[in-house]
Each structure stands twice: as C-alpha cells, then as structure tokens.
Amino acid sequence: MDDSPAPRLTVPALRFRDGGGLLYSTLARLVASDAAASRAELVTAAGLARSTVTRHLDALIEAGVITEGGPVRRGTRGRPAARLALNPRAGLVASADVGARDARVAVLDLGQDLLAETTVALDLESGPDAVLGRLADTVRELLDRAAERTAAARLCALAVGLPGPVDHAAGTPVRPPIMPGWDGHPVGRDLSARLGCAVLVDNDVNLMALGEARTLPAGQTPLLFLKVGTGIGGGLVSAGGELHRGADGAAGDIGHMPAPGAEGVACRCGKTGCVEAVASTAAMLDRLRQDGAVQDADGLAGTGDLVRLVRHGDAAALRVVRAAAERIGEVAALLVHVYNPARLAIGGALAAAGDELIAGVRAVVYRRALPLATRHLELAPSELGKRAGYVGGGVLAVEQVLSPDGITGLMGPG
User: What is the pTM of this model?
Assistant: First the structure.
C-alpha cells in the first residue's frame, strides 16, 4: 500500500545501568536501524561482551522480537553470517494525525509498513470526550482490518498529533487556540485507558517533521518543517534525527512570531501581529472575502476552497497567496539564520496545490538570509505530503515500543 522507504531509527547513546529493558532496547534498535545485521556486527556496535550480547539476543529471538535467517551480504569473504532483523509482526502501532475537521488514522507493523488507514470526519470543538471516543473506535476498526493481513499481533503504542501546543511528557494540550475545552485534558491517559496501550501525544507539525526527516537521504538534516494551513506551525529535527521540542514543548510554534507589516492585526491567540493572523489559509480566505474579488466570495468555507481557486489559476487567489508567501518568507529567513537547516520543507494542502507558495517563500528566504546560511539549503515542498503526519507518528510509536520501558511488553511475562 505504501512503497516509500521505511523511516530509519536512530540509536541514542545509552548507559547500561541494568541488564534488562535498557540492554534489550539497545540491541533491538541497533538491529532495527540496520546498524548491525549479524551477531558479530551487533557485538561490535553494542560495545559489550559477546556472551552478554548472545544471552540477550537469544532472549529477543525466543520472544519473537528479532528474527535470524538468510545471509548477510556485506561484501565480505567466507561463509555469510545469518541476518538479524526486527520482526515486523511482533506488534502493531497506530498513528493519528488530527486536524480541526478530520483525522488521518493508520495502523502499521513494527517495520512501519502500512496495514490499514482511513480519514474520519470530526470536530475538535465538540470536545475531547466525543473526539477521543471517535478516534478510539476508528483505531479498533483499523485493527480489525489489519488482522486480515497479519497474524494477531497486539496494539503496542499509539501516537497522536494535535493541532496546537502540547506538553509531550504529560500528554496534554496547552491552551490550544483552535481546541476549546481541551486545555490540560489528559489525552494520553484517556486514550490509553480506552485502547490499553501506550499513547504518545505531540504537536501535529512535530510528527510531520519527524516523518519527513526519517525518509530523506543522508545529509538532509537538520530539517525545518513548516506547515501552512488554517494555522501555521513548525517542526525542528536535529542532524541526528531527533525532534527538538524545547524546554516546554513550544519549539517550532512559529505561527505566533511577529510578521513584518502585521502590527495591529488581531490573532486568535489573543495577541496581535502574528504571522498566522496574516498568512494562514484562514487569513487568506478572509482577505478574499473582504476584497470580494472572486465569485461567490462569501461561500469560501475552508482551505479546500482556496486550493481549488489556486489550481484554477484565479488571479485574486494567486495575489493573496503571493502576499502571504512574502510574510511567511520573512519569518522563515529569520529561522534559517537561527537554525541553519540543511532542508526547509513546506507542507499543507496549499503547498501541494502549485508553485506559488513555495516560490514566494523561497524568493524571500534567499533574498533576506545571508549566503552562509543558504548556500547548501534545500527549500522544497514536503516529500511525504499528507502522509507526513502518520509516518512520523508511526516512527514515534515504534521507538516507544523499542524503548527500555516499551520493549519489556514485547518480551512477555518475566
């Protein structure tokens, strides 16, 4: 169903404080990331005694987490070693990319192969109980569909992306502007109780950035990911492939940075002059309604209507998009200086609809930023498009399953 390359897993430096979950986790992640494809390579990569690696690896194989078989082809002479691999069917993960009016939900195996997906309509303004109940029901439906394709592996983790600031550690939204009634709601704990699995909650653009970064060729990180939609958000991924959330989870919340020339324009966050207030698709639609320059301007209801106008080459819509691109480009140029990314990816339906938004942002960034910050910069639309969120959620969920805490659930009792 999905032939994109599987996201690579990074292996952070870990201290071996015990011989349990931490060691199992490190060995499994080394195998999953293809950093070690044989027993000999695993001993070298782990930096541990062969007897220690063998004992713990055998337990992982016995539990069905790792498989061993088939030759490793590394260009070496002699009899090829047996290949180690993460068993993709040892467990299942789910990912939900939640927007203001719908959610894209997917179930994947541990190899991040897509087993089932759907898009469901929902309304965040109806409150957390209704929305989370709908999400949980959808995940159950997809698990039933996935069961037709795979053995009965259980759901181990769910990652949820929400369109607003999130306290990732607590699993709660933090005063999200477009989610009335959600502030402080324990989304992670709520969904965990409904589905009986670990639940990770993050900002939606963080998940898009993570998905994008993990499917790019080497050398394309650090990554700055901008999503232009009803709101404007950003995600930062380090050169090592890790999300940068900041001290309080606010890193990348660029929609509420001041935009040049926007002073006095009210934003839904309660402040004035935010780039989101003048350059989001909601702001672009407001401008078209005010100008009355398009037929049936009052009937413009959402981003889809703006995308339709852009694709049909409507002159008024293109002018509005170009003006918004200027504003976004000014902010992006500042971020390029601060973060110096190797790649700046722009996502959202409008970015995929044509060249106007990307070209406008690119022109300003290269005009405003110094050559040292742009000489190797790739500025392009998202490679994954609308799949970025659920791919990133899948990566986050799999890494949770293979973490020191998560892997004990795969190992079985004892």
Answer: 0.89
